[in-house]
């Protein structure tokens, strides 16, 4: 029965194969045409394409130019090619189809120029896995290393994103064979994993120390060893390293990190009594606690029910006037916690509460660590004193 059905489907399969072949023929026809990679030296994701182009020695087939030649990433000319307004972007003469996204560009280059130079596709599943982990879990949050404000992917705080970035580097590090036979991630043959991971590790090695991470610990051990071997043993990777690092040093000279919290901006104000409460060095009547927030009863209550809600990490938030986009998530968590506490009748709250943030001397703030007062248990008058 199955054989009869298969026989009946054969003409349709042949037609579909012919149709698909004709449908994709414009791209195949354009394979030998001149291509242009719109990219800049600072782009770690675009750098993987630059590595492939140079290792395959197809620079005469693919020009590498700045998006500024079209007026920049947000220019109408560039947005017409890539509505996302991002780089890298590959265009091919004779085709109206522009190829965005670095991994897609790389796989197009590897397919189009499969018979030239290294394949970058060794018979090792780890190559694709490392590239995939990089794009899913490093690229999506790498902005925490250099962008002014969150969010960074799914993370609303820079600290959480930095912690996750380092965790995902460790995940990749665990995949690398310590005794691999060669300087590349999959042994003696260069792979897409090498081209993908190397430029981002240049980012990490340069930027993580700005956030208080020792330079010796910026890269996990096996990644660090692999990275050093590539620098010493592969001229193309060395050239891309110099391109990326040179651009980052340009950012340094322009003060890129001077106003970024945890890098140029750090909380260096003295500790307060709240820090001792958080550290359990001073006892407190804690009514709520999670990873980010601590709430405890005020020792000098101004109402029958009076609870203070504070961030566990001050992170420069000594008062509300110090709030920045980096604090959006914790400010929201403080208010959500205050709202939940105000509904707790066991704490003495009744029908509602007053939520107060005192800011600065004129506002009555006594402790330079942002805190939310939740007062209730009786009818409160207005205006306050």
Please describe the topology of this protein.
Layout: H1 2-23, H2 25-29, E1 35-38, H3 44-55, E2 62-65, H4 76-81, E3 89-92, E4 99-100, H5 102-112, H6 125-138, H7 158-175, H8 192-207, H9 221-233, H10 235-253, H11 273-278, E5 286-289, E6 293-297, E7 305-311, H12 328-341, E8 353-356, E9 372-376
Parallel strand pairs: 1-2
Antiparallel strand pairs: 1-3, 3-4, 5-6, 6-7, 7-9, 8-9
Helix pairs in contact: 3-5, 3-8, 3-10, 6-7, 6-8, 8-10, 9-10
Tell me the overall shape: elongated
Task: Bin the helical content.
Answer: 40-55%
Strand content: 5-15%
Structural class designation: alpha+beta
Biggest sheet features? 5 strands, antiparallel
The tally of strands reads: 9
Report the total helices. Answer: 12
Write down the CATH topology of the largest domain: Glutathione S-transferase Yfyf (Class Pi), Chain A, domain 2
On the 0 to 100 scale, the average pLDDT is 91
Straight-line N-to-C gap = 89 Å
Radius of gyration based on Cα positions:
28 Å
- What's the order of the H and E elements? HHEHEHEEHHHHHHHEEEHEE
Query: What's the CATH class label of the largest domain?
Result: Mainly Alpha
Which stretches are low in confidence, meaning pLDDT under 50 for 5 or more residues running? 1-31
Number of domains: 4
CATH architecture of the largest domain: Up-down Bundle
Strand order of the largest sheet: 5-6-7-9-8
